[in-house]
Structures
1.
Amino acid sequence: MGGLEGNRKVGRLAPVRRTSTVDLIAERLREAVVDGSLPPGTVLGEAELAYQLGVSRGPLREAMQRLTAEGLLVIPRRRGLAVKTMTPEDVRDIHWLRATIEPELGRRLLTLPAADRRAVLAELGTEVKRMQRALRRDDARALGDAYLDFHRVLASWGGSVRLARMLGTLLIETRLCTFSMFEHFEVHRDLVPEHVAFVEALAADDGERFGILVRAHLEAEVRRLLAEPEDAKEDDTDRLLAETPDEPQPLDRLDLPEGL
Amino acid sequence: MGGLEGNRKVGRLAPVRRTSTVDLIAERLREAVVDGSLPPGTVLGEAELAYQLGVSRGPLREAMQRLTAEGLLVIPRRRGLAVKTMTPEDVRDIHWLRATIEPELGRRLLTLPAADRRAVLAELGTEVKRMQRALRRDDARALGDAYLDFHRVLASWGGSVRLARMLGTLLIETRLCTFSMFEHFEVHRDLVPEHVAFVEALAADDGERFGILVRAHLEAEVRRLLAEPEDAKEDDTDRLLAETPDEPQPLDRLDLPEGL
DNA sequence: TATTGTAAGTTTGTCGACAATCTGATTATC
DNA sequence: GATAATCAGATTGTCGACAAACTTACAATA
């Protein structure tokens, strides 16, 4: 009788979460992208990468396709894989999209039952505290991670699987924007008070104010990221990546994700 | 001098669009999904499908991963690939998302320069005419195709690559909703006047009205699709697919696309 | 009769190998 | 001296094959 307790409702076992190798590789690659071990413009050979991951090239190539569909990787012809370098246009696009999505998420959050709403606010509060601790330690990396998790919490409670997935990708792309524009993290002091204000607005049931604050934050981020538009990263890796033409692509049909 | 004319600006040749095999396969699969040759719940073996497409299993598996990331396919463990069957919850999610996105697109369209705006209206008008012709012929298939293209035009002029890509996927998913709920197309008479009204609202610069109309249309679509929630498609293919549990999945972390 | 155990068959998941292609540099020619 | 052509090297794209895992059917037992 001791030991395996808790299976009171016998028909309701939690399903076993078995994850495939491709999933593991994809997750590993995403981690590497967000933590900066694969900076934008990195061009890696498949054989080398597969060896590092301890898998064969087959599953790796499958995972690459997954990341490509998410827009985090580009696959230049016969040149392995490259982490996407975000252009100023990408920066604007990503942040504009987030500025459209996140206020909507806030609005949806406020329609949740009271218990759930308390739970969300608690989770958000936890992340803000993480941000505060990171700021005190001047740990830009930890600050950025907590920032991502804060917005991931927002996504996960939005009630839409698709939107959550999309915002999750957008957040990784946001991180790529930072890496594409600057060489490394920098501590961003305004971030914490801004997010405290976000939580306060939500706690006060003021979805309108939340939206305004979020939009202001994101616009400020765009300005900060695009402050010096020209001198940002002009090394050779970018030119290799530029094989994918960003400007002259014919605008007749950009309907579906196709390698890009 | 005859022959190859038109290269006046010599430095501005259109880049050669070379498409990889994986791209071709992925596009082919998407076509098959939208035209109904791969109905929701279809479980196909890799070898069989690869043979039909005339390729090896390698590239096919890579394309599968691409479609999986888009949410059109699910990959049950060791059971090949299955076209996603949309649940009522999916139907609501997809249409709610579209109801959030498309009004925003309309608003953005109205900020375009006059010339572009005329071009959009022209393209939209063309699609509406296609819808009208299809309706006169009682061709539900053609009507549905024109419907998709109408909204694709909307997406392509929205000024956001990411949003365009996302709406493109959402539209295919919309088609999957139809296939998941009904056995086949049905001619939908209200569709044409509704879309005429959309174009009129845009032509009148009334983004507000456009948004209201679009939301109304999408809500009506949800009601129509979920009219008979129980008797819709209860064959064995669905149960096979149900290996991916829709209800009892632990809701702790739904942050990133992982197979699902 | 229902349930469990066993076994065969089929299919996936993974790996290794081959060939086509691209890159980069070196050489020859105008 | 600069441009074009050639050649070697390396890497991707694709295919075939093997082993593990899962499914399904059948048989045995309680």
Note: Chain A touches chain B through 57 residues (CB under 8 Å).
2.
Amino acid sequence: MSNSTPSSPRVRFAPSPTGYLHVGGARTALFNWLFARHFGGTFILRIEDTDFERSSEEMVQGILDGMSWLRLKWDEGPFYQSQRLALYRETAEKLVATGHAYYCFCTKEELDARRQEAAKAGGPAMYDRRCRTIPAQDAATRKAAGEPCAVRFLVPDGGSTSFDDAVFGKVEFANAEIEDFVLLRSDGVPTYHLSVVADDIDMRLTHIIRGADHISNTPKQVLQYRALGADLPVFGHVPLILGPDKTRLSKRHGATSVLAYKEMGILPEAFRNFLALLGWSPGPAHKEREIFSSEDLIQRFTLEGISKSNAVFDNNKLAWFNTEYIRACESQKLLPLIEEEWRAAEFTPNRTPQEILAAIDLLKPRARSLRDFAGLFRAYFSDSFEYDPPAVAKFLADDSLPPLLRELASRYATAPEFSEASAEETLRTFAAEKGLKAGALINGSRVALTGQAVAPSLFAVMALLGRDRVVQRLTDVAKPPSDG
RNA sequence: GGCGCCAUGGUGUAAUUGGUUAACACGUCGCCCUCUCAAGGCGAAGAGUUCGGGUUCGAUCCCCGAUGGCGCUACCA
């Protein structure tokens, strides 16, 4: 296929700010970005805000934030369609002038009524094309007189319109099935059908990579390219992302905004890796591994790897990617993200930078999400933390334990040295003397030191916290909980 | 309803493009390790490739049909 090695392709992500950047949109953006990077092309961001009713500044910001969280940088834009209205009007007039479009004086109400009637009669719900027959001269006069009218594209009567999709192959629609769609509304604002084509031509896009929900719209666009005498770009439609019940991903399935995943403590790189593998595969290489760095993805990404069938979003797998990425990430790089979590949780650590990094090193292998660092792991970064009641119930319920821990604390306090190895030796010796199983003391100590039943190896934790804190916490837990 | 698209274990994907005991990962289950929980190691269950017909010596792969799912069917995008 000629599209396998395009030189300097130009692609775009063109979200509509009628909602936040959702998972499907993010993947479309990612694919376009990967494609551009792979072929040394240009990635353009265009905001399709021609639906003034439903678009909002807030949503635009949400999309921009989502893009930047995912580290998807665009080369040109963002362009706003709301600021390019003149181009669309010009394009519509050009189409009218060349006989490819005509003025339609039907009102929305009339149209709705006719559609309802048609539905009742079981007939096709398409526009009946009645304004086609208005002589051009009459139409121009009525328009000049101020009668409101829309501009409709004149779809050829016979034949069919087809295109060669880079993912799906040849897709063909009978022209009889395509309605004379509206290009320009009566208020002069373009519909999506017009603005995409006008912009895609104007921005010299070579490849249109977008969701498969646009397949049915494509022939309407192909028709316009032809009428405008423009070269067709390569269309590549990407299968949709579905929820676990195999219906289209929506709010019902939980998080739909990409930023919600940020809030859940997902690493952007993990999310990208996960997303890249939904509906795309690097081929046989996928058999050897699942983890692909951005460089890997860029190097391997082509349209040929895009699958035709829809994919189900699997939270489990995303969680797995996240743990893998957190574990593999250098603590130094993790730190700014963790600090962000801390700010969000209004948590302030009281440790030196070195201590913080050491703690992250120790903790990251068991972190499920970045949020753990502001929640479960507080005891490592501050002396103000909570005891998890189930943990206490599990390992500190025995009344004989607190006095023992206090005694153990005094041994640590007076030990000649304090290290991971010596801490272990001290505890095991102590346990042997008391005729106790070391495990009981270890588990109890863990809760005393961390507030949690789950933690890294106890002695590593002790070494990290340091002698003073270990002594303090082992002693404190022996006291009845109070805020005195 | 009409039109279009899709179909490999629960999920994401492989299968040198018609020749494999249909592979890998996530998830699940078991065992080992052990100081908790993860991780890690080992192992297991789970699809004869939606179903039915063809074509072929041979179909996951090609053709037809059915079924199911999804998409579009606006002066939304």
Note: Chain A has a mean pLDDT of 92.
3.
Amino acid sequence: MRIGDLAALVGVSTRTVRHYHHLGLLPEPVRLANGYREYRLRDAVILARIRRLAELGLSLDEIRDVLAADRGRELREVLLELDADLAKQQEAIGARRDRLATLLAEADLRPDSTVSPDMAAVLRALPAEGSRFAEIDRELLALVDSVADPAGRARMVDLMRPLTEPEALARGHALYRRLDELADADPGDPRVAVLAADLAAHLPAELAAAMLPDTDHARPRGDGRAEEADAMRWMKTLDAELSPAQAEVFRLVMATLRGRT
Amino acid sequence: MRIGDLAALVGVSTRTVRHYHHLGLLPEPVRLANGYREYRLRDAVILARIRRLAELGLSLDEIRDVLAADRGRELREVLLELDADLAKQQEAIGARRDRLATLLAEADLRPDSTVSPDMAAVLRALPAEGSRFAEIDRELLALVDSVADPAGRARMVDLMRPLTEPEALARGHALYRRLDELADADPGDPRVAVLAADLAAHLPAELAAAMLPDTDHARPRGDGRAEEADAMRWMKTLDAELSPAQAEVFRLVMATLRGRT
DNA sequence: GGTTGACCCTGCCGTAGCGTCAACGTTTCT
DNA sequence: AGAAACGTTGACGCTACGGCAGGGTCAACC
């Protein structure tokens, strides 16, 4: 029996048979004078066993182990392990399908629809039209939402909710406009201090509290280092997007909030 | 923001970021004078979107398409397609776990336990001890069982069942022994014809009928070619394992059966 | 006896999504 | 000033083969 016969018999490609030889799964048979491999019944039996195990989902490495040890005990262990693994995979796929269903249930699949549903609602409520600063704000929110774990996401949404109420929204429009106007201004511009005071005055208390630790460098080292590093990165990320005057506004707001506690 | 900051922010490795650049998923940002990439908020947003889509299970190619087309219609299509694909995967995994459970339910996981449960029962019933010929027979049965589809497997088991009955078993032992004795005999040995006659006389009718077409070369071409080729392979496979005298026995048996119809 | 077609051989590249060096330059901390 | 921790490009590694290149072998047909 030559390689093509063997392959057809068991229902694999000749390439697969040679691959198994290469991996040492299937022993190389004797060669004929012309160099062709000559197979016997035994080879077909081994190959068929390999295929059955492979179709069950064992990796070729695992199959080699099973064939080598070859007394039921090990096979049983491997199969149990495999079953547990498959169960986990099923769960994982189920979870993904749930998230997919959530996404698909959202009627309006806009480009930014890859944020969580709650944050999507917040973004819909916040002012957006025409303000560069509002755009940055929205991007930052979407980013935090993407990166955070579910608990963090929920906290973010809670913190933002006060800003979506009608009177906060009305103020928000004006504040965004005044921030936009500082895009090309000097850090010493008189409007900077005034805007900082207004911002600090109208920032919801919880949101202010959440922002404060972000720039608190004086804390003792060694606790919450990772979170602090994250928070620092957020602030620096935002800072990099702002003009000098806008950045100055934020520094003043932060100083005010720190002083207030 | 440099590549390490960006990666930490979004929760991926720097290697991943560079990989996405290489694939054109994430645009290359401007470079500083030292050659370092300098990222902005916008890059982090894009990267985060890529990650969310990737975690949903989209391939990076699909993500590139979605980001390029980027008006919800396409995203929706891709997500629906993905969901269908995941559903199929879940089913496939479920089927594999079912087969696993069947295997694991078999108490005795011997090396040849990769055959179907029904065939395993047949193999347990058939004589095995010490006969080389019995061994070949068992290997051939296990192989056919491995390779056949479920219907074929059931048919095989049905064909073999008469041989597992007590009187057939008793005869089987003797026949195997007589075949073994022909291992080194001459094809012209007088025992050959006698054994062939005994075999033909005691072969169950259905099994004989099933074996017959395997060597029937006279049939018109064009119908059942694939099956015929398979059957031919089986016979040649068996033939290759037999000594000349044993092969002669089989030829005589076949001739007798053909003449009988 | 040349040609055709169906086989066989070895060996290398490609897949998806990065991980992991290597070999080198830059920044930052002490 | 030196070390540690960054950054750069490039190349190879992983699964389980598929596909191709560039050959050799063998049977049949004209």
Note: The radius of gyration of chain A is 32 Å.
4.
Amino acid sequence: MVSTVAGKTRTEMAEQADTLRRTPLSRTRVLRAAVALADEAGIESLSMRNLAQDLGVVPMALYKHVANKDELLDGMIDMVVGEIDPPVPDADWKHVVRGRILSARQVLRRHPWAPLAIESRNMATPAILAYLDSVVGTLRAGGFTADLAHHVMHAMGSRILGFSQELFDASRRAGRSGIADPDPPAALPPEVAARFPHLAEIAGAASHDDASVVGQGCDDQFEFEFALDLLLDGIERLHQQGWTSSRRPR
Amino acid sequence: MVSTVAGKTRTEMAEQADTLRRTPLSRTRVLRAAVALADEAGIESLSMRNLAQDLGVVPMALYKHVANKDELLDGMIDMVVGEIDPPVPDADWKHVVRGRILSARQVLRRHPWAPLAIESRNMATPAILAYLDSVVGTLRAGGFTADLAHHVMHAMGSRILGFSQELFDASRRAGRSGIADPDPPAALPPEVAARFPHLAEIAGAASHDDASVVGQGCDDQFEFEFALDLLLDGIERLHQQGWTSSRRPR
DNA sequence: CCTCAAGGTGTACGGCGTACACCTGATGGA
DNA sequence: TCCATCAGGTGTACGCCGTACACCTTGAGG
């Protein structure tokens, strides 16, 4: 029996939902419940059956509101992407883009399942397209050529949506993320450290001033901004010197 | 009935495998067949049952050689990562790292299912650790502090393994990738272009000199190297000026 | 009052991963 | 030579999954 954010079990919440069942289903109610379920129990326990149970309804009822599970995922993604802050007005392109990306990152930290979900769907949803379009608009307004803007969007890749692919990403693990998982950094086990000495060396190398980061876990936010600024600074430099993709390095 | 690379159907290949069944199963034979199946038919058709059929064997037989499907995927990943070229000797860190990353990219282009598989497994496999360790070693040998090397590894993220998350990545689509899918760039449909004018504008903006890239499809390799060099140049600059993460921006 | 459609229900099918008991054929010590 | 052992392939079965399809209920409009 696993407790969730509000200290209720999932089944208790299902019963509670059961008493409220009279409020009819709707697409947004389904999507909201799906996002909540994925947030609390992990994406791997988002099945049509579990979702229906949380809503106090029989599985097939969901299909009156979403076409199928893929379309459900698309709807969830759109809902999440819609949480990203609008651009701040009256600022130069660099601050606007930086701000939106950091906002996107905050959103995705509330929905740890979203990056993988976004990556596994193979076409962008309307909300994602709208967001990307808006970012391109910021660049163009900042004086970027369409050509450079194009390459910049590619260079940012998924980072533009607030996540970088971290390879060893503790927060990505599918498990139930409702409770703040203490999960001590687990200083890579000695036999691993012996086999991979360079990894062992850099594992604890990040010198963080404040004590908010325990042990040798590293500060995700810092690493994200490090990479983000590395890219933004490089982009700014190209922009200032009027870079254009004329001759290609073959 | 769908033909594969060699012009045989999957079932024909299974029959062929059936005649060769006498050669006993082994872990590497299982892994090789799994990689081949994923390469040809897409990761979504890699099931224990399909794989067993390709090997002319009953599904449960596989479990004598791999613990379960997750461990099978780990083994496949290790096999793929093992294809990455070793570092070229006698070159400065930048060329060595650049070369290895481009080699990794070539490998992953042969196995389009691998990026998603790598991302969805939540811990690194031994082969990935060995590869990363070797890259860190190159940086350290090039004079990087452990601190800077740490941040650099984070900044490169998944790009260090040869893929960037592209958001709309045609080559990522799950479908059968054996045949060169012509799939014309499909100049985003007019009603989409109307709703997202900035995207429409940059869609065809990349000016590629040679004609190898048809229509307004953009050159993946160019975009990848653009981002890679943006990062490497920024990193080189930090390295030269002795960057260290002393004061953090709050 | 009757109709009709929107929306929730029940049953069922085929596919998945895999637990568990079983069989089989080669191997090696007595 | 014989028989025990055991690695490795087999068959059956269970509980999940997504979802097709026929059905029933209910409330609003002519």
Note: Chain A has a mean pLDDT of 82.
